[in-house]
Amino acid sequence: MTLKIETNSDGRRILIRLIGRVRPEHIEELKKQTGAKDPPIVFDMECVTLVDIEVVRFLNACEKSGIELIHCSPYIREWMAREQVRKSTYPHHRIN
Fold it and tell me: pTM, whole model, 2 decimals?
């Protein structure tokens, strides 16, 4: 399954619902979708089935920049947390 992106706004926030597998080639499109920070942006990840390390790093950067992630699966949250620890433990070491 490819990624489907649904965008809605209630005037207070922009909700971007991600459906399917988020792959590295989708990151540029997601960056375009999140370019405007006003109103706040929320990624609804309830229907995300799979990610990889590049996407995990992108999601961590999104949260750091103020984008909220909701309905994120436990496995993705755990991977994000491990990547943050790895980055803080080895700040100059990059794994590709």
Answer: 0.86
